[in-house]
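Support reply, case 0932

Customer input (verbatim):
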Amino acid sequence: MLSVISFIGYLLLLSRTYNILKRNRSNVQVAANKRLTIGGSLAALAALLHAAPVFLPAIGLVLSPLSTLPVLLAALLLADQAFAVFLAAAALLFFINVKEAAIFFLATGPLGLSAALAAVSNKPLWRSLPLAASLLICGILLLVFSLGLPGLQNIVGAFNAANFLIIALFSLAYSSLFAAAASFLQKRLASLFAAVLTETDFNVDRPRHPRK
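Our regenerated output:
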């Protein structure tokens, strides 16, 4: 029963995230001819970071959580088209390591998509954060109690109220961290695009002197 509820919640919350990002597609400032290049690069980076523990067992554990950032950045730059980045990265991970692919597909990737809502939805943090935290909770519950991943299951143990509270508090704190990162990156990207547009306008308006 827990697995069914978690899976339905995961699908509904992921669908809600997609719809919110889709409504913000008009705010995308990346040129259409550059979206494929940017999306492919971010998908490859996310897959490499998340698969780091497979190739670098020690330092890889530090690099792996950073795989949320490329997905988050894709959501800020590409809106709902970031879902293609998310799915492409998950597909790449499937060929590298199935366990890492499952973790990315159910937890790490969706967190990047939903945490971006704190920056793009024009809603206060307290309204956008519950969606990201709830989606992460559903993902963790699926990983631990449905797929039964050994590492996570040994940490969490049996499902009870205390363990659920720990998962919920962890998800809330972890989502807050990436929501803050989304707000920071959004401000930086806005400044960057403003500078690029200003420079472009200057070059267009500058009079051209004929060659002698």
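We compared this against your earlier run and they match. Two observations from our side: The chain is about 80% helix and 0% strand. The two ends are 81 Å apart (CA to CA). Please reopen the case if you see a mismatch on your end.
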